[in-house]
Amino acid sequence: MQVLAFERVSGYITGYYVEAPVGDSAQKRALQNYRTRLNERGMARFEVLGLGTDRELIRTLARRLADDSPDAKNLRASMHRTIAGKGQGKGGILQALRRSPLVGADLEFTRSDENGRKVGL
Fold first, then answer.
1. Own/partner pairs for 26-32, CB < 8 Å, 24+ apart?
2. Is the predicted pLDDT of residue 37 greater than 90, yes or no?
3. 0.85 exceeded by the pTM?
Protein backbone atom coordinates (compact mmCIF):
# COMPACT_ATOMS: atom_id res chain seq x y z
CA MET A 1 0.00 0.00 0.00
CA GLN A 2 1.39 3.33 -1.05
CA VAL A 3 0.69 6.50 0.98
CA LEU A 4 0.80 9.85 -0.74
CA ALA A 5 2.19 12.81 1.14
CA PHE A 6 0.37 16.12 0.75
CA GLU A 7 2.11 19.43 1.26
CA ARG A 8 0.25 22.21 2.99
CA VAL A 9 -0.19 25.21 0.71
CA SER A 10 -1.66 28.53 1.71
CA GLY A 11 -4.88 29.65 0.03
CA TYR A 12 -3.25 32.77 -1.38
CA ILE A 13 -2.82 32.72 -5.16
CA THR A 14 -0.31 35.17 -6.55
CA GLY A 15 -1.77 37.91 -8.71
CA TYR A 16 -5.39 37.53 -7.53
CA TYR A 17 -5.29 39.97 -4.63
CA VAL A 18 -7.10 43.16 -5.50
CA GLU A 19 -6.95 46.15 -3.21
CA ALA A 20 -10.17 47.89 -2.30
CA PRO A 21 -10.93 50.90 -4.50
CA VAL A 22 -10.27 54.35 -3.07
CA GLY A 23 -13.99 55.23 -2.82
CA ASP A 24 -14.89 52.01 -1.06
CA SER A 25 -15.19 53.57 2.40
CA ALA A 26 -17.33 56.44 1.03
CA GLN A 27 -19.61 53.92 -0.68
CA LYS A 28 -19.99 51.94 2.52
CA ARG A 29 -20.74 55.12 4.45
CA ALA A 30 -23.33 56.21 1.86
CA LEU A 31 -25.00 52.80 1.96
CA GLN A 32 -25.08 52.86 5.77
CA ASN A 33 -26.59 56.38 5.73
CA TYR A 34 -29.24 55.25 3.22
CA ARG A 35 -30.17 52.23 5.35
CA THR A 36 -30.33 54.42 8.46
CA ARG A 37 -32.72 56.85 6.72
CA LEU A 38 -34.89 53.92 5.59
CA ASN A 39 -34.94 52.56 9.11
CA GLU A 40 -35.99 55.94 10.51
CA ARG A 41 -38.97 55.90 8.14
CA GLY A 42 -39.87 52.40 9.32
CA MET A 43 -38.80 50.88 6.01
CA ALA A 44 -36.54 47.92 5.32
CA ARG A 45 -34.78 46.81 2.18
CA PHE A 46 -34.96 43.12 1.38
CA GLU A 47 -34.60 40.72 -1.49
CA VAL A 48 -37.21 38.21 -2.64
CA LEU A 49 -37.13 35.39 -5.14
CA GLY A 50 -39.89 35.00 -7.67
CA LEU A 51 -40.74 34.42 -11.28
CA GLY A 52 -39.42 36.92 -13.78
CA THR A 53 -42.95 37.48 -15.05
CA ASP A 54 -44.02 38.64 -11.57
CA ARG A 55 -41.31 41.30 -11.27
CA GLU A 56 -43.54 44.31 -12.00
CA LEU A 57 -46.39 42.89 -9.92
CA ILE A 58 -44.12 42.50 -6.88
CA ARG A 59 -42.60 45.95 -7.35
CA THR A 60 -46.02 47.57 -7.67
CA LEU A 61 -47.26 45.68 -4.64
CA ALA A 62 -44.21 46.79 -2.63
CA ARG A 63 -44.76 50.43 -3.64
CA ARG A 64 -48.43 50.27 -2.65
CA LEU A 65 -47.66 48.62 0.70
CA ALA A 66 -44.90 51.15 1.45
CA ASP A 67 -47.47 53.92 1.17
CA ASP A 68 -49.11 54.44 4.57
CA SER A 69 -52.57 55.12 3.18
CA PRO A 70 -55.92 53.50 4.04
CA ASP A 71 -55.71 51.72 0.67
CA ALA A 72 -52.40 50.13 1.73
CA LYS A 73 -53.93 49.04 5.03
CA ASN A 74 -56.89 47.43 3.24
CA LEU A 75 -54.55 45.71 0.79
CA ARG A 76 -52.37 44.45 3.65
CA ALA A 77 -55.40 43.11 5.55
CA SER A 78 -56.75 41.44 2.42
CA MET A 79 -53.41 39.78 1.75
CA HIS A 80 -53.18 38.54 5.34
CA ARG A 81 -56.65 36.98 5.02
CA THR A 82 -55.79 35.42 1.67
CA ILE A 83 -52.49 33.98 2.84
CA ALA A 84 -54.05 32.70 6.07
CA GLY A 85 -56.73 30.99 3.97
CA LYS A 86 -59.59 32.64 5.82
CA GLY A 87 -62.49 34.06 3.91
CA GLN A 88 -64.23 37.33 4.56
CA GLY A 89 -66.27 35.70 7.30
CA LYS A 90 -69.43 37.01 8.90
CA GLY A 91 -70.34 40.62 8.15
CA GLY A 92 -68.20 40.93 5.02
CA ILE A 93 -70.88 42.69 2.98
CA LEU A 94 -71.51 45.20 5.75
CA GLN A 95 -67.77 45.96 5.98
CA ALA A 96 -67.60 46.44 2.21
CA LEU A 97 -70.54 48.87 2.31
CA ARG A 98 -68.90 50.82 5.12
CA ARG A 99 -65.74 51.21 3.02
CA SER A 100 -67.78 52.59 0.12
CA PRO A 101 -66.90 56.12 -1.05
CA LEU A 102 -70.64 56.95 -0.88
CA VAL A 103 -70.72 56.68 2.92
CA GLY A 104 -72.05 59.97 4.28
CA ALA A 105 -73.14 61.27 0.86
CA ASP A 106 -76.76 61.79 2.14
CA LEU A 107 -78.35 60.09 -0.84
CA GLU A 108 -82.13 59.70 -0.87
CA PHE A 109 -83.68 56.75 -2.60
CA THR A 110 -87.39 56.84 -3.46
CA ARG A 111 -89.53 54.22 -5.09
CA SER A 112 -92.49 54.97 -7.30
CA ASP A 113 -95.89 53.74 -6.14
CA GLU A 114 -97.10 52.22 -9.42
CA ASN A 115 -99.58 49.39 -9.41
CA GLY A 116 -97.85 47.75 -12.31
CA ARG A 117 -99.39 46.53 -15.56
CA LYS A 118 -102.42 44.40 -16.12
CA VAL A 119 -101.74 40.88 -17.26
CA GLY A 120 -104.34 38.95 -19.12
CA LEU A 121 -104.30 35.25 -18.36
1. none
2. yes
3. no
